[in-house]
Design goal:
The protein is built from 13 helices and 10 strands. It is mainly α. A 3-stranded antiparallel beta sheet has the order 5-6-7, with no helix packed on it. Strands 8-9-10 form a 3-stranded antiparallel beta sheet. Strands 1-2 form a two-stranded antiparallel ribbon. α3 (57-69) runs antiparallel to α4 (73-86) and α5 packs across α7 (189-195). The longest helix has 18 residues, at 134-151. The chain is globular. It starts with a helix and ends in a 5-residue tail after the last helix.
């Protein structure tokens, strides 16, 4: 049986938000038009305008997922075309993580970023089934198999995801292995399980959730962006000991994956909410709030958590999408799409 046929047969095992293309796209046409006008070039390159206008596998994966949620096959095709031609350059079937228009050649670091690979495979699988396009499904399966072979590993009884194939292992760092818990795209893992059934994606899911629960540091009991597992879990050496721009998406990923651990989500909601109601970036050593992010794309994360836990509807201003910068705009659309598809009480 082909991968495409297998995914159709096993479709009921997928998470609710991955089960099929919604009858009405959960990202509205005007929202997607605003997003792609700002961040997606005609070539299909997704531009990170807060990071030197580079592109990366994470952004291409997000672009594919958002194009799917917007029901735009044309845009999906061109984002995948750029990704396939410019990032799928590694011998192991994974994507290089960075493409820099200012560099010659644009790829100067051929390491991968495993969250980008996961997002790309996930979006391709959804589109392959939803649009009955076997080439998307086949490409998704190839990436999932490669990700399992090269980035998943067992350490002290846990199944883990290396942030990149090179540079994070126990033999490569004094405090290794080092992981990034925001690289666990929890909603994608049941889909990847069907694409690459020989890998233990369920164990990876379980370990990610357990580590988020265990890695609560400082007075606000929040996970750091980078976590060392060389002994007891602790913030990794050589990185700021912060709950910052990486980790802020962990609660969103937990929510999008289905009913989260309510006690854990409440702990994260309490810890990440700033005094003004925004999203707090926290120094986990000093307990100082380094910044309070007030853009709608950041504020919607604690607001969505508050709705899931307490039934509090999203504030009116975060229900409206207007692009700001690439990253908060992406998070904003992912949160809105989930609320529309699975949390009508939030609206």
């Amino acid at each position: 049986m082909s991968r495409a046929a297998a995914l159709c047969v096993l479709g009921l095992l997928w998470p609710m938000n991955a089960s099929s293309q919604p009858a009405t796209a959960v990202i509205q046409p005007q929202e997607w038009d605003a997003y792609k006008t700002r961040f997606v070039e005609e070539s299909g390159r997704v531009v990170d305008d807060a990071n030197g206008n580079i592109s990366h596998s994470e952004g291409q994966g997000y672009g594919l997922l958002l194009a799917w949620l917007a029901g735009s096959r044309t845009d999906f095709e061109r984002i995948w075309s750029f990704t396939r031609m410019n990032l799928m350059l590694r011998d192991d079937g994974l994507a290089v993580w960075k493409w820099d228009p200012q560099a010659d050649p644009p790829v100067t670091d051929t390491n991968n970023a495993s969250d980008g690979d996961m997002l790309i495979a996930y979006a391709l699988a959804l589109a392959g089934r939803g649009w009955s396009e076997a080439r998307f499904t086949d490409s998704a399966g190839d990436i999932a198999v490669s990700l399992a072979a090269h980035a998943m590993f067992e350490h002290e009884g846990r199944m883990l995801l290396s942030p990149g194939v090179a540079g994070f292992g126990a033999q490569e760092r004094p405090d290794g292995p080092v992981v990034n818990l925001s690289y666990w795209v929890f909603e994608a893992l049941p889909v990847l399980r069907e694409l690459a059934p020989n890998a233990d994606w369920a164990a990876l899911d379980q370990s990610g959730r357990q580590l988020v629960a265990e890695a609560g540091f400082g007075a606000r009991a929040l996970p750091p962006d980078w976590l060392s597992l060389g002994g007891q879990p602790q913030p990794a050496q050589g990185f700021p000991t912060e709950f910052s721009y990486n980790a802020v998406r962990i609660p969103l990923y937990l929510i999008r994956a289905g009913e989260p651990d309510r006690e854990l989500l409440q702990r994260m909601l309490t810890g990440m909410t700033g005094p003004g109601g925004g999203l707090a970036l926290v120094d986990l050593e000093s307990n100082e709030i380094k910044a309070e992010l007030m853009e709608a794309g950041y504020r919607i994360i604690p607001a969505l958590a508050r709705c899931v836990l307490h039934g509090t509807p999203l504030p009116q201003d975060v229900r409206r999408f207007e692009p700001t910068m690439y990253y908060p705009s992406t998070l904003h659309l992912l949160a809105l799409a989930h609320a529309r598809e699975a949390r009508p009480e939030c609206l």
